[in-house]
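Weekly sync notes, structure subgroup
Attendees: PM, AL, DS (notes)

Item 1: joint prediction request from the bench team. They want all two components modeled as one assembly rather than separately. Inputs as received:
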Amino acid sequence: MDISQLIPKPDQLQVGWGWFQALLTVTFLLHLIVMNLMLGGALISFFRHAGGAKSATNGLISKKLPLTIAFTVNFGVAPLLFLQVLYGHFMYASSVMMAVFWLGIVALLIIVYYSAYLYNMQYEATRGFHTLIAGFIAGGLLGIGFILTSNMSLMVNVESWPQYFDRPEGMILNLADPVLLPRYLHSVLGAVGVAGLAMGLWYDLKKRKGDKEAEEQIGSAMTWFTGATLLNFGVGTWYMGSLPVVVRGLPGINGALLVLCLLIGITCAIFALIKGFQLQVRTSAMYLFVCLAAMVLVREFVRRITLAPWFSTSDLEVVPQYSPLVAFLLVFAAGIVLVGYMIQLVLCDREVGQ
Amino acid sequence: MNYPVWLLDAFGGGTLIAIVAVAHVYISHLAVGGGLFLVLTEIKGLREGSTPILDYVHKHTRFFLLLTMVFGGMSGVGIWFTIALLSPSGTSSLIHTFVFGWAIEWVFFVGEIVALVLYYYNFNKISSRSHLILGWIYFGCAWLSLFIINGVIDFMLTPGSWIENGNFWSGFFNETFWPALFFRTFLCLMIAGLFGFLTSVNIKNDDLRHNMVRYCGIWLVVPLLLLLASAYWYKIALPPAQQEMVFVTAPGYKPMLTWFAYLSPLLFAGGLIMAIVRPQSVVRPVAWLLVVCGFLYMGCFEFIREGGRRPYIIWDHMYSTSILKSELSDYQKNGFLKSARWVKNKELTLDNRMAAGKEMYTLLCLPCHSEGGVLNDILPQAEKYTVEGMDSFLAGVGDANKYMPPFAGNEEERRVLAEYLTTTLTPDRSRIIGEIKKEKVAHGPFDQNKDEYVLLASTDRGMSLSSQPELSGLDFSYGPPTLRAQLIYREESPSVISEGVKLRYAVSTGSGVIKGLMTEGDGYFQAELGKLTPPSDLFRPYNLADIEAVIDSKVVATTRVRVGVSNGFGCRHCHGGPWRSEDSGLSRQTAQNILRIHDRRSGTSLLDTFNNSKIVVCSSCHADSSRKEAGRPEQLGLSSAMHGFHAAMLGETTTSSCSLCHGVGQESHTRSFDGLHNHLAGLDCSSCHGTLAEHGASLLKAEGKSGGELLLAQLSAKVESGLGDVKPRRAWEMEPDCLTCHVEFGEPETDSAFNSWTESRDKLFAHRKGEAAVLLCTSCHGAPHSLYPAASAHSDQVGVLAPLQYQASSYPIGADKRCDVCHTEEMEDEIHHPGSLGEFRNRVE
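Output from the run, pasted for the record:
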C-alpha cells in the first residue's frame, strides 16, 4: 500500500504558517507550565498522602488543583487549535484511529475535575480518603496524559496508519512506537519537577512575606524538583535515543536548530538543577522557564523532521485574509488588559478591605 | 473523502454527537444566561438589602460554577473532540475558515474563567461594586463567546455569500446570524430561570423561597415569549431550500418539530402557573421536571437546526459524507475507490466486490447512519431492498431524497454497494428466478381450405398489472383490459362481419370464469374484462380467453387469445415485505410499508383504513383514466403521481427502474414485455417513453398542479439538458405514436418515439385501424408491448397464438404475403398499410 495516499489533503491557511507556528509555540508553553503544575501537583499530593506526610502543603495543593485543571484545559484549547490549523490533517486521522481513548479523555477529565473539587471543597470531610482521592486524580491525569502523548506520537507515525484497516473501531494506541514510553515519562517527570519548583516559589514568596515555617517547606518542595529533574536527565537520554534515525541524523536547518535548542535546554536544566540544590528558587525557576521554552521548540523541530518525508508547513496554501488576524490580536490584547484589570480590581479591593 | 471513519455501530447515526452536544449546549447556554441571572439577582439582593438573597446568590454561584465550569467547559472540549472524530473534514474546514474566530472565542473563554473564579472566591471579600463588575465581565465574556460560536454554527446552515467569496466575515455574519443570536440569547435567559428553580426550591424560608421561585418564573416566561418571536424570525430568515428541508423534506425531523411545539406551551404554563401564580406548588420534583423539559426543548431545537443543513455539513459546500460538492462529479467520473484516500481496495475485481462494498459502506453510509442503533439505523432501511431496488435507489439519492447526498461513485461501484447492503449487511432478499417451466398452450383450430371465417382477437393492453386488492389491501391496479375481436368472412375481398353474429367469450381467471357476449363496437366486438384477476393456481402472467363466433346457433370460428395480466408489481424491491406467493404479488406487509410512507409524507391516515381491513383505493383520490376514476381535482393523477414521485427517487440511467416496478425484466417472474420491440437490439422502455424522469415530466406537465410543479423541479435536476422540451401528455390517452419511427408504416427512421405523442385516444395503437380502416392494428399485430412475434418466457405458443392458428408462423397475421389467411386469391395492392405485402423484416429463430 502506498502510505502517502492516506495522508489527507490539508485546508488552506488565511495567513502565513509562521503566524500559527508562533501562536502554537507560545500558547503551548503556557499550557505546558500549567499542565505541569496540575499533573505534578496531583502526583506530589498523592505521594505525600501515601507517605503519610502531614503539612499545609497538602491543603495548598487541594486548594489550587481545580484551578490548575481549569487553566490547563483552557490554555490547552489554543495550542490544540493552532496545531489543528497546521497539522490537523495528521491529527484528525490519528484521533479517529484511537477515537475511543481520545474521547475518553473528556469523560476522564470531567470525573477528575469533579474529584478535584471534592478534594478541594470537602478536604476536611474526606480526611480518611485523601490518598485514595489524590491517587484517583493523579491516575486519571496520568491516563489523560498518556492518551495525549499517544496521539501526538501516532499522528507523526504515518507508517503505522495502515493498522486502521484491521482495527477501525478506534482502539489503536501507538504502543509499538519506541518513542512513546520515554516521551511520556519525560513529560511526567518534568511535571513533577515543575510542580515541585512552583511549590518552592510559593513558599519562597511566603518566606519573603515573613512566614517562618516556609523555609522548611522550600527544601521539601525543591527536593521534588531536583529529584525529578535528575531522573529526567536519564529518561531524556533514553527519549533521545529512541527517536527515529532520521531525527537523530539532525538533517538540514531543522536539525541544526534542534541541536541549538536542545543544548540551550540541557544547559538551562543543569543550571536550574544546580540552583535548585542551592535552594535559589527564583533563579532556578528562571533557568527552568528558559529550559521549558527551549524544549518546546525541540519538540517542534522533532515533529518537523519526523514529518519531513510527507509534509512541511511551508507546503500549505495561503489565501490571504488578514482582517480576522487583526481582530484576534486586538481582542487578545484587550483580553490581557481585562484579566489584568480584574486581578488588580480584586487585589486593590482586598487591600482596601484589610 | 480525506479521512478514515470511526466504526461506531449502534452509536453512529448522530447518537454520539446528540448525547454530547445536547448536554453541552444546554449547560453552555446556562453559562451565558446564568451569568446575567447572578448579577441581577445580586443587584436585587443589594437593592432590597436582603442578606438571604445574597446568600442564595453565593450558593447558586457555587452550583453554577461546578456545573458550567466543570461539566460545561469540559463537554465543550468534548464537542470539539467528537465532531473532529465524526467529521474530520467538516471540522477542519470550520477550524481553517474561522481559526481567528475560534481564537477570539478562546480569549473570551479565558475571561469567563478568570471572572467566574474571582467572582466566586471573592464573595463578601471585596466591595459590592467590584464584585458586580466581575459578574458583569463574566456575563459579557460568556455572551461574546456565544456571539462567536453562534456565527460559526449558523454558517454551517446558511453560509450565504461565503460560498462564492470565501470571506471570513461573509460566512460569520451570515443570513441567520442575528435571528439565531437573539434566539439563543433568550434561550440562555430561559434556561437560567429553569436552573434557578433547582436551587431556589431548596431555600428553607418559605417567603424567601416563594419570592425567589416567582423571580425565576419570570426569568422563564418572559424570555420564552421573546424566544418564540425570535424563532419565527429565525424561520423566515432561512433560505427557501433550508426551510423546505426542515419543514417539508426531512421526515425524521417532524417529531422534533411537534415536540418543540408541544413543549413551548408546557414550559410557559409551567413557568407561569407554578412559579408566578402558585409558587408554593413548586417543589423539587417539579423543578427537575421543568429542567428536563428544557433539556428536551433544547434537544428538539438542535435536532431541527442540524436537520436543516442536510445533506450537507456545510450547506451547499460539503456533503455529510465529507465530500465537497465541487468534487462530486470527479468521484462519479473517476470512481469512488480511486478517489477516496482511506480505502484498501482501489480497484474492483471479482474477488473483492464485497470487501470494496464494505469500504464504500463505511465511508459513504456510516457518517450518517448507525448500524443497529437508535438513530438513523441503516439496517431496517436496507433490509427492505433487493439488490436491484437498492441500486435504483442509490442512483436516485439526492434528488427526491434531498436529505441524502448523491452517490459519489460510478455505476459499477453503485451496484457493488447495493449488493453489499442487500446481500451481506442485511439478509439477501433477492430471489433468483430460476428457469421458468414453460407450458404448452393450444391455439384455436383453423383449416385453410375449409374454414369460411377467420376470427382475430387481441386486447387493448398487453401488460396489465393487478395489485390484487382483495388480498393486498391496496388497489392501484390498472383499469381492466378490453378484449376485442373481428370476424372476417374469407373471400376474394373479405369483409368484417358485424351483423347476424354473436361472439361469446370465456376467460378463466384467478377468481373463476368470466364469460359473456361481446358487444358491437366500431367494426369489431368487444368486452371489457372488469373482474379480471391474475391466475391464482399456477403463476403465469396471463389468462387465456376463448372466443367463439356463432351464426344461426352454429359456431363458425373459434380462437384463443392471451389476456396479459399479472400481479408482478415490483414494490417489494424497495418497500420490503415478501412476495405474496410464487415470487410474485403484492403482500399486505409491502402494502403496509407503502401506506406508512404515504401517510408520513402526505399527512394522510391511509394506514388506519388499511388496518381496519378496508381496501385503500389509490384512484379514489388520484384520477386514473384507465379505470375511468375522476379522483380528487386537487390531486395529481395516479400515473403522474406514481411516475413523478418515483422518478425522482430512482435511478435514471437505465430502464431497470421501469423494469423493477412493472415486472417486465429478468429479475421478475412476470416478464410481460415480450413483444417484438423487446427483442430488438437498442430498444428499451426509454425508446418510446423517454427516461424515467422524462416520462414522469411529460405526465406532470399535463397536470398543471402545484404538487406537480414541486416534483417537476426535482426531476429537472436529473436531466442535464433540463426538461423544458418535454411535451405534456395525458396518461393512457396520449402515448408514443408508432408512426414517429415507422413513417408511413415503413422501416423505422429513428429509434426514439419519445416526445411525439398521439393526439387523441382513437390514434392509440390499441384503437387504431390500418389505412383501409377495416382491421384493428392489434388484430394482426397483437396487443401493445406483446407485438408478434412475441416470445413469452412462460410458453412458446402463448405469445403468438393467432399467427400459429392461422398461418403456422409467429409473425403478424398476413406477414410474408400470407394474404391467404383472409383472401382467397393473391393480392397485389397494399391496402392495409404500405409494406403489408413485404417479407417480415425481423426474423426470429
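Discussion: Chain A touches chain B through 68 residues (CB under 8 Å).
Action: AL to compare against the crosslinking data before next sync.
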